[in-house]
Design a protein that fits this description.
mainly alpha, 2 domains, 15 helices, globular, Mate efflux family protein, antiporter activity, transmembrane
């Protein structure tokens, strides 16, 4: 589990860390450029993160074939997911270029910020197909239990972007100063390098296969991937609706409240990122065990992975509990924001061990291809737990306590659902093809 999880963690963390660096470089241009990058980057992130099934769905399917000893079929999943990513990426580029101006105007409500965001987005959006190729590549490589190559590929691409970004934005080393568009160019160049490495890995695997896997699009495989993707997209939309609603309601309680909410939410996202590395290992392990017909071993592994995830989560919770007076001060010195952080800090700490259960068993069920159950349970948890408490917080002026009570209810309901499903063993279906249905 650690062999798979440890390389996966920096892959998950690399993009958020690079975004902070990108903000620091562009921030030297002033507030307008920074706002343009924030809005343009948000649009690109929203349209690509809805397609994470290219990673998680492909891992579920490829890992079963890997467990069954059919490496060629696992590589085929990668090839078809890559075709799907290219097609979806080109569609995204065309649509975003067509509607960029009106959408950005609505999002910003400010002509200058909208213009800055558009100058970034009209270049940055060409990275969408490249991002989706990398998602597909991550998916099939995780499925065959290789998380080291994705780490090298991602670091190579982001490392190149990190070097180019200040050079192109500020005109260093004899290059012209492109300003904000220079950030977008650096992003696309780095994404091109990462995508090229993933395509190269597919080509090498295909050449090494005893019977070469067809490279042309296979409509049957793509259709099966889209069926799995449909469930994961609906699940992702539930998350988006919840967190956008939470941000909207927090903003109604004043600048201090929304600042505190965002600080603690960023820390929650950090915890989620860390625990997700264990979920990735769970996907790959469970899929391979079921693909090889080892159902009893898969059931035992599910609970073992959950126990280790809880131990790790308790350690994280202990660290944040011990840092309750120090950690918030790293992000802000504003007394109003710090006061609001204190209101919700213990919600955050207490939820972390529960998240250890949720993320581990999410990974187990994703690895088994049980995306339909995860879709339904997440939607119900959002509709029954998170969203009602968020909007009741606004109506009854419960403040951040109400919002974070909603998040706690969301996490608890999801934990109950995945524990029940795992205990039922309905997910533990042997065979290489289960993930295709």
């Amino acid at each position: 589990m650690l062999r798979l999880a440890l390389p996966a963690l920096p892959v998950l963390a690399a993009e958020p860390i690079y975004l902070l660096y990108d903000f620091a470089v562009v921030g030297r241009l002033g507030g307008l450029a920074l706002a343009g990058l924030a809005v343009g980057g948000l649009v690109l992130a929203q349209v690509t993160t809805q397609l994470t099934f290219l990673t998680y769905g492909t891992t579920a399917r490829a890992s079963r074939y890997h467990g069954a000893g059919n490496r060629a079929a696992a590589v085929r999943e990668g090839i078809q997911a890559t075709w799907l990513g290219i097609a979806a990426g080109i569609t995204v580029v065309v649509l975003v270029l067509a509607v960029a101006r009106p959408v950005l105007s609505v999002l910003t409500g400010d002509a200058d910020i909208a213009a800055a965001a558009e100058s970034w987005l009209r270049i940055g959006i060409f990275g969408a197909p490249l991002i989706l190729i990398a998602m597909a590549g991550n998916g099939w490589l995780r499925g065959v239990h290789d998380t080291m190559r994705p780490l090298r590929f991602v670091v190579a691409g982001l490392g190149t972007s990190a070097v180019l970004c200040p050079v192109l934005v500020h005109g260093l080393a004899g290059f012209p100063a492109l300003g904000l568009p220079g950030s977008a160019v650096a992003n696309v160049v780095g994404q091109s390098i990462t995508a090229a490495f993933f395509i190269g890995a597919l080509a090498a695997e295909r050449r090494a296969a005893p019977a070469q896997t067809p490279i042309r699009p296979d409509i049957g495989v793509i259709r099966a991937q889209l069926i799995l993707g449909r469930d994961l997209i609906l699940r992702s939309l539930a998350f988006q609706a919840c967190f956008l609603s939470a941000a909207a309601v927090a903003s109604r309680f004043g600048a201090g409240a929304v600042g505190a909410h965002q600080v603690v939410l960023h820390l929650w996202n950090f915890v989620a990122l860390t625990l997700d590395s264990l979920a990735i290992a769970a996907q790959a392990i469970i899929g391979a065990l079921l693909g090889s017909g080892m159902v009893i071993a898969a059931k035992e592994a599910a609970w073992r992975i959950m126990r280790w995830s809880i131990v790790f989560a308790v350690c994280l919770a202990g660290a944040f509990a011990a840092g309750s007076t120090m950690v918030p001060g790293i992000f802000t010195a504003d007394p109003g924001v710090l006061g609001h952080i204190g209101e919700i800090w213990w919600f955050f700490v207490i939820m972390i061990p529960v998240a250890g259960v949720v993320f581990a068993l999410d990974g187990v069920l994703l690895g088994s291809g049980d995306a339909a159950f995860l879709r339904t349970s997440t939607l119900l948890a959002a509709l029954v737990g998170f969203l009602p408490l968020i909007w009741l917080s606004l109506v009854f002026d419960w403040g951040l306590h109400g919002i974070w009570s909603g998040l706690a209810a969301f996490v608890l309901l999801r934990a109950g659902a995945v524990v029940w499903r795992t205990r039922s063993a309905r997910w533990a279906i042997a065979g290489a093809e289960r993930g295709a249905r």
